[in-house]
Amino acid sequence: MAPILEVKNLCKSFGDFALEEVSFSLEPGYIMGFIGPNGAGKSTIIKLILNLLRKDRGDIKVFGLDHVKNEQEIKNRIGFVFDENYYYEELTVSEMKRIIAPFYSNWNDKIFKHYMKKFSLPPKRKIKDLSKGMKMKFSLAVALSHNAELLIMDEPTSGLDPIIRDELLEILGEFIQDENKGVFFSTHITSDLDKIADYITFINEGKIVFSSPKEELWDRYVLVKGEKDLLDADIKKYFIGIRENRFGFTGLAFDKENMARKLKGRTVLEKPTLEDIMLYFSGREENV
Ligand code: ADP
Ligand code: MG
Predict the structure, then answer these.
(1) Which residues fall within 8 angstroms of residue 243, CB to CB, at 6 or more apart?
(2) What is the pLDDT of residues 179-202, one digit of tens each?
(3) Which atom of ligand 1 is closest in space to residue 154's alpha carbon?
(4) What is the best residue among 16, 44, 186 to mutate for testing ligand 1's pocket, by most ligand atoms within 8 Å of CB?
(5) Region 234-263 average pLDDT
């Protein structure tokens, strides 16, 4: 089956920032977490996919279709949730819904009402008077009410409490039960993805560091803790980043097997979290 989302050699520059040859793809049936520190280029890529920004170079295909030539069809089949509010603040929830619904050929009012109820959304309240969590839920209700095959979400959980975040993760889990669908989910709150993502694409300073099945990351990278005198030049070259403290060091290293052999019995080897991986790769481990 064709990838549900395919980005190839995508380039875009804004003067002092550039996306360089960004490539990754998402197969149907999976959730891809898109991680990277603030300013890495996540929102820019999402805007490029949705043709809200013009690319300099590269190819983007959604459902196997070119994202510019087939923009209308693609948007009809995508549900999106953004961190920023893109609705008319002065309208009520149900007025806004009446404006949005006709844009979608598969709009299903029954499903929308189901989510309004499930999320306890007040139909008569103005958008501007909704809390941040309610706005996200309204976006999500819209995204889920037109039979979308791909959900694209830009930091949907930022600023939300853990209960709402868990509810969202549960809904995404249900959504993906249908193996023809996909979820592309950007966040810098990586703990959400430890739970649900199948694939992780990591971007740093406009470049893709890796895009791979989450489980493979645990084979590839290891968190090493030990005493500082172990860190000779030979050992150091296996590290992506090292943080030293009074008691010793903690570092993220390549090649778990090799580390285990070389440092047998002299260190503690742990499974890194996605946050560890992100922080060490982006050189921000000193802020841990
Ligand atoms: P992220 O979503 O990963 O936090 P963004 O994609 O929003 O990162 O931003 C990446 C970089 O591009 C930042 O340095 C940001 O300032 C810059 N940028 C984003 N949009 C524009 C724009 N329209 N004009 C100029 N610079 C931009
Ligand atoms: Mg962003």
Answers:
(1) 249, 250, 251, 285, 286, 288
(2) 999 999 998 888 888 889 999 999
(3) 2
(4) 44
(5) 87
